């Protein structure tokens, strides 16, 4: 869910391409967003956010009742990655077009509350806000624990910037936490509504051992993935791990931080072509051209 594999959304026509060449998107160089989302280790953050999102009964019921994630988990992951990358590094037009598409998809979706029998919309602000906050908090907290140097002001700046992304999915930016303190307060308000439902437990087991693509299920790739998923789970706040019935001990936090920091160092040793995809490289090219 970072900039590593984004294909993005291309413009059409000479005039649009000329406009795109000077458009640095919703964020641009110098933003906390570009610093955070340049980190390939955020793939782990994406999985972390899915564990958190599953703890909201209505949010996870909406996913289960409307998604084919068990049939094609990697296709869904790549589409999500494309969307996030387009919003973070695409042009303004690309980001807005991606937002329109996702709003259109969500507007058609409904789910049924298993306890009340009530039918509800997937794009209710409460649900959109939960998904947004768990995603951005996972991104910035994982990047920081992996070793990216971010001051408290940088973190607050990131949350404030991400209100622009929240607006794309249909949220009122003013209703979205814009600082670390506001995110912490939001989590405190939400915790009484979270629980380990059957759908959440099923999602936990699936995320820990999904079918791997390209016939990798019986190769060492299985062990690698399981280790990454376990790290993502351990990176959650202690209160979230306790809802899952796991210990929220400080030693778990330390182990997770060491693991994700080592992963970041390992990934940084790889050639850039393996770490960043076309939409990220296009953004860097536009930024370089803007300084000439």
TrEMBL record:
The lineage of its organism: Bacteria, Bacillati, Actinomycetota, Actinomycetes, Micromonosporales. Residues 34-268 form the ER-bound oxygenase mpaB/mpaB'/Rubber oxygenase catalytic domain. This is ER-bound oxygenase mpaB/mpaB'/Rubber oxygenase catalytic domain-containing protein. One of its GO terms (molecular function) is oxidoreductase activity. InterPro entries: MPAB/Lcp_cat_dom.
